[in-house]
Design goal:
six-stranded parallel β-sheet; 3 domains; globular; ADH-like_C; Rossmann fold; NAD(P)-bd_dom_sf; alpha/beta; Quinone Oxidoreductase, Chain A, domain 1; 15 strands; Zn-ADH-like_protein
Amino acid sequence: MSPNEQIDLPEFSGREVYFLVKLSFDMGLQVLHTTAQVICYTYKIFGKEPLEVMDTFKALVLDKKGEQTNLDIKQLQKDDLPDGDLTIRVAYSSVNFKDGMVAVNNQLVESYPLVPGIDLAGTVMGSQDNRFKEGDEVIVTSYELGTGHWGGFSEVARVPADWAVPLPEGLSLKEAMILGTAGFTAGLSVQRLEDNGLERGQGSVLVAGATGGVGSLAVNMLAKRGYDVTASTGKSDEKDYLKKIGASEVVDRHEVEDTEQKPVRRKQWAAAVDPVGGKTLQYILSTLDYGGSVATSGLTGGTDVATSVLPFISRGINWLGIDSVKCPMEKRRDVWQLLADDFKPDMHDELVNEVTLEELPDVLRDIMESKVRGRTIVKLG
């Protein structure tokens, strides 16, 4: 390369610019040119093509031999990755109840071996789709990720481009996984409630399962938006935590369970966010105020709901189903933008627990035993 030949330079930090300028004065232009070549080469190796020097990477793998299932951290090669348009260097993943269902209870698994993890956030390392390029930061949640397609509990992932959402301005990769599927579900729930008429000052909004991921984030989002929030929980020692993240009142979960199957009770709630289901949902339906809505997204309390048409036809209530798995991409992008802006919760230290891949199996067992509160994120990058 001649001294007059142009080269494409990456963006340099202020320190690098100072170093290059000083060299140009101290040692002459030829040394400057050679130094720039070295920096470009180093940038190419360590910045643009990390997979080429990352022959192996770690992942949590669920496998089955006969009737025996095993959950182990393994060293994988890039050739082990599934098909997909985007190869992603994963920075963070997060832990959801659904991940425990897969990794601990071996439910929802379409085939073995499988890398669980229904959430990931990271940087595109390779793209076969013109909508994305190397260096783009993306979020991938739901679809078949972590159930039918290798998921986020891996240092490297490969996914269809149709599943990826560009990281909105206003969110870091870490914040995106503090939110994850739980935050997306909470945000979608709040949006649906407001679209169906919920306004500040109408009365208290009940959040069931409030110490869980969806519940905790819903409490904080609603409180930040000016709503009076009542949080229900089965963990009596978490009252201070719930008050700190925004709850005005905390009630025991048994106070909001329908044990008598009464279809209509005293009106109590302007609206509700329910990631629990079962008898809790029965109680909510019977106690919503006139025109109130409940956004239902979970089944930790059971799938069966005994109700009648009475609260619907006598109070005009709305039962809103919340689906984060197959939510259309346009809506998905809209909700993520809200989560980066108007719906962005406070990232309280009490809300977030960060773990390593090595600590993850214990956390997955804990979440199935209701021993986890708030959000647990997994640092991978």
